[in-house]
Amino acid sequence: MPLIENSSYKPAFLFKNKHINTIWPALFRKINAFSYRRERLELEDGDFLDLDWSKIGSKTLVILMHGLEGDSHRPYIKGMVSALNDEHWDTLSLNFRSCSGEPNRLARSYHSGETEDITKIVDLAVTEHHYEFIHLIGFSLGGNVALKFVGEKGKQLPSACKSVIGISVPCELRDCSVQISKKGNKVYLNRFLKSLKEKVRLKSHLTKDVIDLQKVLQSKDFFEFDHFYTAPVHGFSSGEEYWRLSSANRVLDQIKIPCLIINALDDSFLADSCFPRELAQNHPYVHLETPKYGGHVGFTTFGQKGTFWSETRTIKFIKEVK
Fold it and tell me: Do 158 and 226 lie in a common domain?
């Protein structure tokens, strides 16, 4: 499949700055009004997932997965939902465990490689909601989860799943941990760590026998946070093992449905290993599009009805594979 280096994304001059393109949509983007209907999915391990549906009566469902410390109300999720609804498709916006506004019940939380919950959601969509066509879209961390899920399933993926799209995907986690620790990304790193640590602190009564709370709260980067919290709580021997086993790059070659990865060349979160160029050139299903600009989950444009380029590009891809 093609390696698309001459992308159609052409931002206004201001948004050629990667940090402006990353930050502006998160702070100032306005989304056309719509309403979610929340469903709480009770899980066999005693935990729960909060699913936010936007239904218009379609046989096609698009499942959306947010990024690190995001949720279903982030502008990039709501913007995509609005654009997909305009195409007369239903959407399900997943809130990962602990991300719906209410702490989850277990010591564990969510992480970049957790795909068992996605298996349950796809099964729910097929067996209980009877969708005939399912497309998966993941942003940042959610993109890694979506691609890893499809790659792991390979030929065992439910036949209703027709495509997967990953936007701003950190598909090699160790390298991205190095990248986000660089000086120019400190403001993002500190914001993520502050939010993550607060969630750990609130659940300290559940994790006291598993982690050293002080080491977690004193973590200066993802190397320390993932080693002292993410790994032990989720059954990995170390942060390094967590990154290795959870990176989507391990299974991209096993993807058996049309796949689009959109990673901007100026994305300050992504390492070069997040641009699987050789794979895309030789794989029958994987498309890699690398716009020169875009920032991290940015791709700001001011199109019809306020849609962003990433939304129109995603819709175009889905229509091509339906």
Answer: no
